[in-house]
């Protein structure tokens, strides 16, 4: 796996951030997360476009992390437009 963004800290902790824009199943999310975890890498998933439209992805993230991360992409050169964190407290909104 090649992470979209991978942070490696001086103490050795590694965390990947994946911007998932295409539709994906929760089984694939779980498998990819396990792949990262088996290498000692924590991972956060950012959902946008088609992946954000799949309610199961958001529910999966809420069950695993207690929140989901939403990313919106502008129509100009695929630059980030907004980033939103949705916690369990906001999920009911």
Q: What's the topology here?
A:
Layout: E1 5-8, E2 14-20, H1 26-38, E3 41-47, H2 49-52, H3 55-65, E4 67-73, E5 80-87, H4 88-91
Parallel strand pairs: 2-3, 3-4
Antiparallel strand pairs: 1-2, 4-5
Please work out how many helical segments DSSP would assign.
Answer: 4
Strand fraction equals: 35-45%
Major sheet: size, sense and barrel closure?
5 strands, mixed
Q: Any idea what the radius of gyration is?
A: 13 Å
Please state the average pLDDT score: 87
Spatial gap, N to C terminus: 35 Å
Output the helix-strand order: EEHEHHEEH
Rough shape? Answer: globular
Quantity of strands, as a count: 5
List unreliable stretches of 5+ residues.
none
Residue share in helices? 25-40%
Main sheet strand line-up: 1-2-3-4-5
- Quaternary structure annotation: single chain
Secondary-structure-based class equals alpha/beta
Task: Give an account of the 3D structure.
With 93 residues, the chain is of the alpha/beta class. Helices cover 34% and strands 35% of the residues. It has four helices and five strands, in the order E-E-H-E-H-H-E-E-H. The chain has helices at 26-38, 49-52, 55-65, 88-91; strands at residues 5-8, 14-20, 41-47, 67-73, 80-87. A five-stranded mixed beta sheet has the order 1-2-3-4-5. The longest helix is centred in the middle third of the chain and has 13 residues, at 26-38. The radius of gyration is 13 Å and the shape is globular. The mean pLDDT is 87.
């Amino acid at each position: 796996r090649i992470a979209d963004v991978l942070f490696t800290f001086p103490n050795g902790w590694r965390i990947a951030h994946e911007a998932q824009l295409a539709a994906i199943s929760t089984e694939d999310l779980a498998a990819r997360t396990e792949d990262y975890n088996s290498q000692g890498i924590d991972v956060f998933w950012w959902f946008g476009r088609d992946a954000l439209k799949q309610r199961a992805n958001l529910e999966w993230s809420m069950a695993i992390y207690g929140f989901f991360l939403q990313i919106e992409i502008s129509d100009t050169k695929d630059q980030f437009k907004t980033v939103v964190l949705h916690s369990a407290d906001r999920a009911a909104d």
